[in-house]
Amino acid sequence: MSTDVRSILVRAARVEARRDGSRTIEAEHVLLALAREHDSEAAQLLAEVGLTEDAIRSALNREWEQSLAVAGIEVRTGSLPEATPERGRDPQMGESTKLLLHRAMEAAPKPGGGRIGPMRILVGLLATERGRVARALDAAGVDRAALRTRATEALAAGTR
Amino acid sequence: MTELVDPEDPAAGLAAVVALRRLADRLEDSQVERAMRSGWSWAEVAEVLGVTRQAVHKKHARRLLAAGVALRRR
């Protein structure tokens, strides 16, 4: 285990951002990174409500299509032309990631000097009604409130 | 002309802004790549996009070089 799980998550999330062609690491990339940490209880909790890596990717695409439809644009995002991602690119933390880390640190019990684990990151990620992750989970038919309660309880019970 | 789905819902309208930016970014990355693969110059791409040659070069050159696209000097 690393001394700071947060750095692992941000590193894994950076890979997701790069793959997505994004210039910043956003909350959705952190969610994918969480789901890929198969050994963690956070990933297991996500999988229990159907949020595997693949399910999250398709939920994010569905959210994209739904939001484009609001602007009157009908696009099958799966058939969009691909751009070659830049492997050397180093995306920086976006605002949604900064917000979720801030919320994660605020969640009880306060981490003090302790390590930041995946469950705490998940709690921070679920602590909002807004943004692409919340909308994607809604599109996937996930009960966000129930998931948030379970993650909050697991964190309070000592899961990192 | 298509009506906005729910003009009363700012959350949906703002999400549409984000979605459009994602779409524009994806299209820009893929279409600049396509043009450069077809032998366009930076100046030609820049003219169509309405930005400076330096701007389009700064944004895309590293990625396209890494992707193995043979770039013209100018």
Structural write-up:
The complex is a heterodimer of chains A (160) and B (74). Chain A has a single domain (5-77, 92-156), classed as Double Clp-N motif (Orthogonal Bundle). Helices cover 59% and strands 2% of the residues of chain A. Chain A is built from eight helices and two strands, in the order αβαααβαααα. By secondary structure, chain B is mostly helical. Chain B is 68% helix and 0% strand. Chain B contains three helices and no strands. The longest helix of chain B is centred in the N-terminal third of the chain and has 28 residues, at 10-37. The N and C termini of chain B lie far apart (41 Å). The model of chain B has no long low-confidence stretch (mean pLDDT 89). Chain A binds chain B through residues 21-22, 63-64, 67-73, 75, 80-89, 130, 132, 135, and chain B through 1-6, 11-13, 15-16, 18-20, 22-23, 25-27, 29-31, 33-34, 62-64, 66-67. Chain B: InterPro entries: RNA_pol_sigma_r3/r4-like. Chain B: This is Homeodomain-like domain-containing protein.
